[in-house]
Design brief:
By secondary structure, the chain is an alpha+beta fold. It is built from 11 helices and 8 strands. Helix content is 51%, strand content 18%. The longest helix has 24 residues.
């Protein structure tokens, strides 16, 4: 069942990162805005402007970072001349407006959102972690805008992009298991070479780098929960030997699994 939500604007600047799922926005006098997998949006939702959101009935995950428009100038030192026209006019004249730019998420954005999805921090540490990742996402998006546009669409057509996203979804489910590239390529309807090239173009990393990152994220989550031993966690995320897991973990995060667990217990 589709979910419909109505929101009245309060002059927030919103940076939205749709990792999975589909949502569409409608604003009076504006064309509908559709947001799907791996899409990011920067939007100024002016005071009193009514926005309706329609969420498609399939599992999804997204992160939205909210800030006041003046924060860009006061905290991050962004000058009016460097801002898109509608945003700079709002700060100069204060007239409520709806402004939105869309683009494809960069690999850095994808990894930050995935880290937020996988986190297990609680309390003050959770708040600090969310704020840090939120600032990271905001800076990454704004750097794209300041270079003359939102993150570019990957150099693949829609049909190929769909296959890449299906491959990613398959990996997200089975990343603990050994990967057979030929089987994965056949599963999504392409060949190994095309899948490898397209996957790297979309996510900025190889398929095996992506699998390793997913294993590390899951390993980090399990270490912070604290119920399994390091050896058990290594097996859980797809490693036959805990020493290999420990080496990969330190290479990825800069600390050993035991140091991660000790930090989480403080």
């Amino acid at each position: 069942m589709e979910i419909v939500d109505e929101e009245i604007g309060q002059d927030w600047l919103k940076f939205h990162f749709q990792l999975r799922g589909t949502i569409s926005y409608t604003v009076p006098g504006q064309s509908p805005l559709a947001v799907d997998d791996l899409t990011c949006v920067a939007a100024l939702h002016g005071q009193g402007i009514v926005k309706k959101s329609l969420v498609a009935p399939r599992p999804g995950f997204a992160v939205t970072v909210l800030c006041r428009p003046e924060v860009l100038r006061e905290r991050f030192g962004v000058h009016l001349a460097d801002m898109p026209g509608p945003l700079s006019r709002y700060l100069e004249q204060g007239e409520p407006t709806w402004y939105a730019e869309t683009g494809k998420m960069t690999p850095e954005m994808v990894m930050s959102v995935r880290a937020l999805e996988a986190m297990s921090f609680k309390g003050a540490m959770r708040n600090a972690y969310v704020e840090a990742r939120g600032v990271e996402l905001l800076c990454e998006f704004w750097s794209q805008i300041s270079r003359g546009g939102t993150p570019p669409n990957p150099a693949v057509d829609e049909r190929t992009l769909s296959k890449v996203e299906r491959a990613r979804d398959h990996i997200d489910t089975y990343f603990r298991e050994p990967l057979a590239m030929q089987k994965l390529a056949r599963h999504v309807g392409t060949n190994e070479t095309k899948l490898s090239q397209a996957f790297r173009a979309v996510f900025g990393m190889t398929i095996f780098e992506y699998i390793r990152a997913r294993r590390m994220e899951e390993g980090q989550r399990l270490l912070r929960v604290g119920k399994l031993s390091v050896t058990e966690i290594a097996f859980e995320v797809g490693y036959d030997y805990s020493c290999n897991f420990s080496v990969a973990y330190k290479r990825h995060f800069g600390i050993t699994p035991k140091e991660e667990r000790a930090t989480a217990r403080r």
